[in-house]
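ok trying again, last paste got cut off:
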Amino acid sequence: MIRFFGLRLAASALTLAVVLQPTGAHARPVATAAPVMQMAHISIEAVGKGSPVVFIPGLSMPRENWRSEAERLKARHRVYLVQINGFGGSAPGDNLKPGMLDGVVADLHAFVAKEKITPAIVGHSLGGTLALMWAKAHPEDVRKALIVDALPWVGLIMAPPTATPAMIAPQAQAMRDAMAAHYGKPADLAAAKATMARLALKPASQEQGAQWSLTADPRVTAEAFYEDLMLDLRPDMANIATPLTLIYPTGEAGSGKTMADGLYQGAYAKAPQVTYVPVADSAHFVMLDQPAAFDAALDAFLAG
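nice, full thing came through this time. structure:
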């Protein structure tokens, strides 16, 4: 049972993956005018000049999820917008086989090595998980990381703290297979909007997220979801020395702040350097629900 559902927050990966029914047949690539570097598991668009910042979107989301931030920051930052192959109407590349998330991290590592940069990282949901994976595997790559509503183990939203990935593996496999089976079937915008109503509080946020989700290849969503659910970073948190900032939602008018504090701060308690930023009147898509509060937190993170 999802212990925290009243906040509509981290049902995120699970609800988004299970309920939405995007289709590769109807997906439309999101246009971009900037040059894009294509890799096996991701593509990266770069805009602006200045200190480097890498943005990683969440499950089923295109790089456009971060477009407004890129436009706002490009006068003073070199902004790198990551997109997982198979999302945003793009071809899946190497993301239809196991090892997808490790492949994304390997591509990110190769990219910053090639560019000779040590960027700040901003990741939402699955993007936050990838930021933690990257900081664990290659701490020399990541100057600091802003994690937006992601947990060291996403299974905490559907299982007790004593649970392990092995305990829920059969259910996770069944959900993965059910998601992937939607490939090629008609898109269901109504279902997408119903799902986003659980993940964002504002009607405009719900509409935007639903439209974006329908550009994802469900086979890639399925594999990413499954690997995320099988990944437990809780034992590694004490060894992730990268400075972390954690933004998390506390529901309508902050009504669930006490529960949110307990869940998120408990999950990250062993990390050596964490700054906690709760955001009231928001759900999982914090940056869409409360853009001004998010911008303020992002600016403080980048300036710190």
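cool. The first helix runs from residue 12 to 19. The chain has eleven helices and eight strands.
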